[in-house]
Amino acid sequence: MTEPREAGAPFSGRTAWAQGLSTPLREFLRTETGSAMILLAATLAALAWANAGPSSYEAVWRTVLSIRLDGLDVSQDLRQWVNNGLMTFFFFVVGLEARREFDMGELRDRRRLVLPLVAGVGGMAVPVAIYLAVNAGSPSAHGWGAAMSTDTAFALGMLALFGSRFPARLRTYLLTVTVVDDLVALGVITVFYSERVVPPALLAAAVIFAVILLVRAAGVRRGLPYALLGAAAWVALLKSGVEPIVIGLAMGLLTYASPAARGDLARATDLFRLFREQPTPELARSASVGLASTISPNERLQQLYHPWVSYLVVPLFALSNAGVTISGEFLARAVTSPITLGILLAYVVGKPVGVIGSSWLVTRLSRGRVRPPVGWASVAAGGTIAGIGFTVSLLIATLAFDGPQLEEAKLGILTAALCAPLMTWAVYRVTALFPKRLRIRALLGTAESIVDLAAPVDPDRDHVRGPQDAPVTVVEYGDFECPYCGQAEPVVRELLADLGDVRYVWRHLPLHDVHPYAQLAAEAAEAAAEQEAFWEMHDLLLDHQDELRVRDLIGYAGELGLDVERFRDSLRDHAGAARVAEDIDSADLSGVSGTPTFFVNGRRHHGAYDVATLSAAVRAARARAALRT
C-alpha cells in the first residue's frame, strides 16, 4: 500500500489504510486555478469568433437539437443546452463543494457559517443596490441579477497568480463566500428568472425529488439510480418553466462528505490481500469496490465531475455566451448604457464594499468573537477579486436580456472581470508598503484557527523534542516501518535545527495491517522510554526500518546501553501497548488515515512535507502566534 517517490519530487507520500489522497479543497483549488486559463482562452476565442464572423457565431449556437423518446420531446438550441443542460453539472459541483465545506471544511465549525453567509449576501446586496440605483426607473432594472454573482473559477484562478503574496487561507475564505454566493444566485434564478410556471410539471419534479430522498434514505450508493432520477427531475423542471439547473445544486447538497474510517480502510486492505493471493476477476471487482467505498461519495463525485466541469463545461459556456461584436458605434452606446455602467460599478465598487463592509460589520457586532480567518488586507483582496462575475452573471444576463441589451450586459461583465485583478494587484502593492509587523497582521489576521488535533499536546505524557515553551508545535503521527516516515525524519531534524523555537511531538500510529512489525517497534520505543531513551530508540528504529524483529530491537537496546532484561520483559508483557493504543485513538478522533500526518499548532498540514513546505507552514504559524501575544 505504498508508492515510491520519484527522484526530485517533494515528500508527499503517505502509507495509509487506503491510498493517501490529496484534500478535496486542495484538489478543488488546483482544478479551478488551471481551468481559469482555459476559461480565459475560451472567452477570447468567443470574442474573436463573434467579431470575425458574427453570423456564423450566432448560427452555430442557435442550431436546434431535439431529443424525442416515446412521445417525450425536449427541444432547445445549442446555447440553451449548454446554459441549462451542461451548466446543471456546474451547479452539481457547487453543491458538492458546499456540502463538503459543511461536513469537513471550514464550515464544520457552525460558528464560522455566520461570517461567509453574511459576507456572501452582503457581497451581493450592495452590487444589486448599485445596479438598481444606476438603472432606476428604467426597464433594464429587471436585470439586477446579472450584477451580483462571483465566478469562483476565475476569481480563484486570478488570485493564484499572486502566489504567496496573500495567505493560502484567503483562498479557503473566498471559496466559502463564493459558495454562499452561488447558492443565493441559483435561488434568484429559480425565483425571479424562471418562465411561467406549469404546476403539473413542477409537481412531477417534486415527486421525483421525493423519490430521490427515499432512495438516499434507503442507503443506495450506486450512481445509476440517482443519475436516472436526476435526469427525470431535470426534464420535469424544464417543462415546468423553472430553471432546471436547480436540480444539480440539490443533488450536490444531498451528497455527504466524510473522512475515510479506519475500519473501512482495514477491510479494503484485506480485500486487496485476497486479490494479491488469488488474482481472479471476482476478487479484483471486490477489491475495487472495497477501495472505492472507503472514500465518501462527495469526494468520489468531485474527483469525477469537477475536472470535466472546469475544463469543458464552463469553457464551453464561455464560448457560447461571451461573444460580443464590438464596433465603434457599439462602444459609444455601451459607455453611456445604464446596463453596462450598472454592472461595471456593481462589481468594481459594490463587491469590495459588500464583502469588506459585511465582514467588518459582523466582526464589530460580535465584538471580535466572529472574525475573518485572514487579515483585513486579505479580506480587501478577496473583495476586489470577487468582482470577477463571469459564469453565473452571464447566465443570468442571457435570461434577463436579449438583443443589444444583452450585448451591453456582456461588455460590463467582461470589463469588470478585467478590472478586478488590477484592483487586487493595487491592494497588494499598498499592503507591501506597510511595516513588517503591520503587514503580517494585515495579511494573516488574528483569528483562531480551527483545531484539527483532537487530543492536545500534553508535555507530561507526549514525547517532546525542542523547547517546551516554543510558540510552534509540530505533531507527527508516524509508523516506524513506514518508508515515508523514514523520508520525513531528516526533514524534521533539519527543521528543528534551522528553526530553534519549534517543539516536535511523535505519536504512534502503527499500521499493522500493512506493516507487520510496526506495533512491535512502537512498543519497543515505549520500553526505551521507561529508561529515558525514547528519542534515541526512535532515531535508531527509523534508521533501520527493515530490521524491526525482536532480536533486532533487543540489539538496539544493548547498543543504547539500556537494561536489556528490563527492556525484554517490557516487550514480552506488551507494557507499552496501552500507551500506543491511546495514540491510535487520538489519531482516529483527529481523522488521521495515513502516515506520516503532521499537525502544526493543532492545524492539520496538508500536502508535501519537504523542508521548504513545512518551514513555510511553521513560519506562518509562528507569525500568527506572535500576533496573539
UniProtKB/TrEMBL annotation:
Its membrane topology: Multi-pass membrane protein
Annotated Gene Ontology cellular component terms: plasma membrane
UniProt keyword annotation of Cell membrane present: yes
One of the GO BP terms on file: regulation of pH
Reactions catalysed: Na(+)(in) + 2 H(+)(out) = Na(+)(out) + 2 H(+)(in)
Matching SUPFAM superfamilies: Thioredoxin-like (SSF52833)
Main localisation: membrane
Subcellular location: Cell inner membrane; Cell membrane
InterPro entries: Na/H_antiporter_dom_sf, NhaA, Thioredoxin-like_fold, Thioredoxin-like_sf, Thioredoxin_domain
Gene3D superfamilies, alphabetized: Glutaredoxin (3.40.30.10), Na+/H+ antiporter like domain (1.20.1530.10)
Listed PROSITE patterns: THIOREDOXIN_2
TM annotation in the entry: 113-134, 140-161, 173-194, 200-219, 308-327, 339-362, 374-401, 413-434
Molecular-function GO term, any one: sodium:proton antiporter activity
Residues covered by the Thioredoxin domain: 442-623
Pfam families, A to Z: Na_H_antiport_1, Thioredoxin_4
Keywords: Antiport, Cell membrane, Ion transport, Membrane, Sodium, Sodium transport, Transmembrane, Transmembrane helix, Transport
NCBIfam families: NhaA
Function summary: Na(+)/H(+) antiporter that extrudes sodium in exchange for external protons.
Recorded family membership: In the N-terminal section; belongs to the NhaA Na(+)/H(+) (TC 2.A.33) antiporter family. Belongs to the NhaA Na(+)/H(+) (TC 2.A.33) antiporter family.
PANTHER family: NA(+)_H(+) ANTIPORTER NHAA, SODIUM ION/PROTON ANTIPORTER NHAA-RELATED
Protein name: Na(+)/H(+) antiporter NhaA
Lineage: Bacteria, Bacillati, Actinomycetota, Actinomycetes, Streptosporangiales
